[in-house]
Design a protein that fits this description.
heterodimer, A: 293 residues, two-stranded antiparallel sheet, 12 helices, 2 strands, 2% strand, B: 289 residues, mainly alpha, 15 helices, 67% helix, sn-glycerol-3-phosphate transport system permease protein UgpA (chain A), membrane (chain A), MetI-like_sf (chain A), UgpAE/MalFG_permease (chain A)
């Protein structure tokens, strides 16, 4: 779509674009180019010179069992976060949709966690499951379950998944609720007249009608789990125990800033760029179909 | 859409009686479970360290609310929380307003002008969608350090300010503005910037407000970037400073103060979201399109 009526001149539009282009150039394109460039070199230990190694950093990276493990960790983590945040959200949205009165109040209450930063959410959940004073950890102990996410890899993973998914439930709820309200009442009533009970109507009519929202949320939640959960992991586990919760973004940080291994960190950035590119294309392909302007 | 539901329902598929109560009960249980972590944080922020350390901790608020919050706000652990709140506020406002300003201008240029390289610049902005700061942290850090912007507001704000999302949102909106308005402005001899300020900007008010909510929360909740570039506690934001309040090693964390800080860290974004709920939902749904 294009405007038929436009203004003349090229200097003014260039001036208007300048702020965005300068910021993007300095803080986006230059650093991204730098990442690609650095990924081809290994700096000497004193940072005085760089040695060209071609794809050596990548070769090294993919032979590194810790890096490959991090891929698996990221896959497990993002799958779980997506499921744990979407299923309860759908359930709550279905409930809220059945209510004529009060749905608005519940919605207001459910929006809260969305505004809570992932890092703050991490601290809240850490507090509940703290091995020394956590309430939930205490009652788990009372029931004979010895909770210790500091040592147990599965418990650590479970905790960062729940803490990451928690705020997303709000987000997914809002989208599902809006989508459910848009399902035509006549379709539901027709099915009801045919004698279909609630759950049957839900699985045969409502759920398929929700599939565009579901696909959209799948992609968005995976992107979230990949890139925006750093705060949760850093506050709760710092990637441990034994790197059991080190997702890719956490590893870029740990290798680049804590380990000071710049070549490897840059190579990891490049790998992530490819991943983001893929996810963005996926998102847009899908979004193009969904939105009707 | 929600308004449709306020009319009396046809009744055929609406639940009545016990089914309705069950729905309410399930809904309340859901809300309670989701709210529990926040409630517990609030409770912890009203007790003393001893009361919390004695497992299991109480689940009802205690009497030390004022003490803990003034402790947090005015002395904190590394730096008074009040300082961190100011830093967060500057950062969130800077990011939200900065993004809105540069996006409005560039969307105006792309939609209302024909000039060489328009397409190229459009795609250049588009591509920045694919580069979240998390992916390019080391080189971006080096750029910011090179400019001497570590531990400064400009270092906190500028690298996060370029946003393709906001530009696209405004572009979409400008495309729906009737051509007649620009035509009339041109006939009247109005200069482009006059048209922009007198007509386009006032028309964009709702979109700007909706975007502001989303961007404010985005800026407020940043964690990784402030963590990297603010080594001076005086410049910490509250969301990243929270983790810095935990002692290293085996010392026991000052839970009441930390939990008071958690509550303080979530109050501003929660107020923004709740008070601008309608705009927020609209902005959310629009910006994700």
């Amino acid at each position: 779509m294009e405007k038929r009526v436009t203004f003349k001149g090229w200097l003014l539009p260039m001036l208007l674009l300048a702020p965005q282009l300068i910021v993007s150039g300095v803080f986006f394109f230059y650093p991204a180019g730098e990442a690609v460039w650095q990924s081809l070199f290994i700096p000497d230990p004193f940072g005085l010179s760089m040695q060209y190694v071609g794809l050596g950093n990548f070769e090294y990276l993919f032979n590194d069992p810790y890096y490959r493990a991090s891929f698996v960790t990221t896959a497990v983590f993002s799958t779980l976060v997506t499921l744990v945040s979407m299923i309860p959200a759908l359930f709550l949205a279905v409930l809220a949709d059945r209510l004529v009165k009060g749905a608005g109040t519940y919605r207001t209450l459910l929006i809260w966690p969305y505004a809570v930063a992932p890092a703050v959410a991490g601290v809240l959940w850490l507090f509940m499951f703290n091995t020394r004073i956590g309430v939930v950890a205490f009652y788990l102990n009372q029931m004979g379950y010895d909770w210790n996410h500091v040592l147990n890899e599965h418990e650590a993973m479970g905790l960062v998944v729940v803490a990451s998914a928690w705020g997303r439930i709000s987000y997914n709820f809002l989208f599902y609720f809006a989508a459910l309200q848009a399902v035509p009442k006549s379709v539901i009533e027709a099915a009801a007249i045919d004698g279909a009970r609630f759950w049957r109507r839900f699985f045969t009519i409502v759920l398929p009608l929700l599939s565009p929202t579901t696909f959209f949320l799948l992609v968005v939640n995976i992107v979230y789990a990949f890139f925006e959960t750093f705060g949760v992991i850093h506050t709760i586990t710092s990637g441990g125990p034994q790197q059991a919760t080190t997702i890719l973004v956490y590893k870029v940080y740990a290798d680049g800033f804590v380990g000071q291994d710049l070549g490897s960190s840059a190579a990891q950035s490049v790998v992530l760029l490819v991943v983001v590119g893929f996810l963005t294309v996926l998102q847009f392909k899908f979004v193009e179909k969904r939105v009707h302007y | 859409m929600a308004d449709m539901h306020n009319e009396p329902p046809p009744g055929m598929v609406e639940k009545r009686g016990s089914g309705l109560w069950l729905t309410h009960v399930l809904m309340i249980v859901g809300v309670l479970v989701i709210f529990f972590p926040i409630w517990l944080a609030f409770v912890a922020s009203t007790h003393t360290q001893q009361e919390i350390a004695q497992a299991p901790m109480p689940v009802m608020p205690g009497s030390h609310l004022i003490e803990n919050y003034s402790d947090a706000l005015f002395s904190g652990v590394n730096v008074p929380v009040a300082t961190m709140l100011v830093n967060s506020l500057v950062m969130a406002l800077g990011i939200a307003l900065g993004k809105i300003a540069i996006s409005l201008l560039s969307a105006f240029a792309i939609v209302y002008f024909r000039f060489p390289g328009r397409r190229f610049f459009f795609w250049m902005i588009f591509i920045t969608l694919m580069l979240p700061v998390e992916v390019r942290i080391v080189p971006t850090y080096e750029v910011v350090a090179g400019f001497g912007m570590l531990n400064s507001y400009s270092g906190l704000i500028l690298p996060l300010i370029a946003s393709a999302t906001a530009t696209f949102l405004f572009r979409q909106f400008f495309l729906t503005v009737p051509d007649e308005l620009a035509e009339a402005a041109r006939v009247d001899g109005a200069r482009p910037m006059r048209f922009f300020f007198d007509i386009l900007l006032p028309m964009s008010r709702t979109n700007i407000a909706a975007l502001f909510v989303i961007l404010f929360i985005y800026g407020w909740n940043q964690y990784l970037w402030p963590l990297l570039i603010t080594t001076n506690p005086e410049m910490n934001t509250i969301v990243m400073g929270l983790k810095q309040m935990f002692p290293s090693g085996d010392d026991i964390a000052d839970w009441p103060v930390i939990m008071a800080t958690s509550i303080l860290a979530m109050i501003p974004p929660v107020i923004v979201v709740i008070s601008m709920q309608k705009l927020f939902i609209r902005g959310l749904v629009d910006s994700e399109k």
